[in-house]
Amino acid sequence: MKKRFKWGLALGLAIMLIVLAGCQAVGGLDVNKAVLSTLDVKSSEAKSSMSLELVPADSGLTAEDKQMIDLINSISLTIDSARTQDPNTGSIEGAVKVNGKQIPFHLSVDKDNLALSLEGMTQPVVIPLNGMEGMEGLTMTGLQMSNESALKMVKDVGGFLIKHAPNPSSIALSSVTDKVNGESLSLQKLHIDIRGDELAGLVKGFLTSVSQDKEGLKEMIAAVYDVYYPIFESTFSQSGEDMGDMAAAFGTPESVLKDKDAAVTYFTDEALKALNEFLPQYDDTVKEMMAEPDMSVILGKDTVLSLDFFLDSKLQIRKQNMDLTIQIPQGEGVPVKQVKVHSQSETWNVNQPVTVNKVDTSKGVWEPSLIGVTPGEVIRHLDAKSDLYRLLTEDAKITQKQISLTTRQNAEDDEDYWYYPEAIIVNNTTMVPIKYVADQLDAQLKWNGATKQLTMVDDLKGTQIVIKEGSKQATIDGKAVTLTQPVINRDSTLYVPLRFVADAFGTKVNWDKNEQLVTIDRE
């Protein structure tokens, strides 16, 4: 428990790198106001880029390590045009670069639909945002929050967090002339550096300040309640479940949760109680955590977040740069010593008339299911000659599957093999549970109880396979096939010969005699 607590604290410290970038007033600049002013932007145009770099370890790299590092380092995102017409309407055009392949994309969204087009897709994807059916029949319409209430909550929460964020040791303000979308502007440049080794002290100051602001904390919790309680209430109302279970998870009766004033008071008191219990042991916990070599590296002086904000006379952020370097502890099998993230962006036409560029859906669309999109469904909507197709099939290998089964008897009682599904041996023929294998290969299945026939449609090739319980006769795309053993039903599970499965689904089979494992591989 203590180790999990320390790792949780470490994760919290890392997250606070971003929060603490808010800071207090610097050189007359009200940073709080400047950051929150970005939430008042109703329309704008922007462009940005982001890249990730893994710095390899000095030694011990395998060929696979180098291949993985090279692949990740090849990934970058460029947004050439991001347009916001109003809080409900926007569009983004840019490209993702991976392993030398550049995939242009175009996304647009309005209050009704999100549309995405990638170069290489035969049709754009369209996801309805109104009236969607979610899991268990919950309609998304009942779960939506208004832009106004959501924006107010973000401003209230953001303002509270920034108000209590102390300044890091390296923070400076200067006047500069810089270009935004080719236009030279007089700007104020706010530069911030936050090192890993100062983070614990900054967080303690932040938490101490929060613990002394009961009214501010209460207002923030009230803002969150106003937005999310109606969503929880709608969710439980549509599902027919009892809200008492959710209330119990918070440790408060349902009647209290339904009463805003009572709920806000309860959560405020609980938060302050937790803070006041935690702060006296904070220093000892951090000291113990930093005594571990890995933590002292991750949260050391070489982990640095550098930020540059360029603000105009209206305190609008017009340009920003971010560089994050995370030092990685070295050891056997660790191929990376640093992770670096770089991003930059610039914004113009702030609160000016902007028109989005909508994705063209006039020639048809693909409306995928929100749950269970298969590799076959994806590649059927791609041009086989495109970079996107090659990226997904050759680099990402989305069609690749590996299924392992054991032929050990009573494997469920063996701690090393209990999680493997069992294959069985019948008259020297290996038989596998066909429904499990077909499900793993994303095949469509249809069972006819009257005829005891199972029909399967292969996800990738569309091959139709039909078997019948108790029979040696099967068909593959209508062609008759004779099995080496009849389909058997054991404990309500149908088993078929392994070789038939391999031929029907176009897979390869490997047998590990020592481990008694059967492996089915699909490329």
UniProtKB/TrEMBL annotation:
PROSITE patterns associated with the record: PROKAR_LIPOPROTEIN
Matching SUPFAM superfamilies: Copper amine oxidase, domain N (SSF55383)
Domain of life: Bacteria
One Pfam family of this chain: Cu_amine_oxidN1
Listed InterPro entries: Cu_amine_oxidase-like_N, Mao_N_sf
Residues of the Copper amine oxidase-like N-terminal domain: 422-520
Name of the protein described by the UniProt record: Copper amine oxidase-like N-terminal domain-containing protein
Annotated source species: Paenibacillus rhizosphaerae
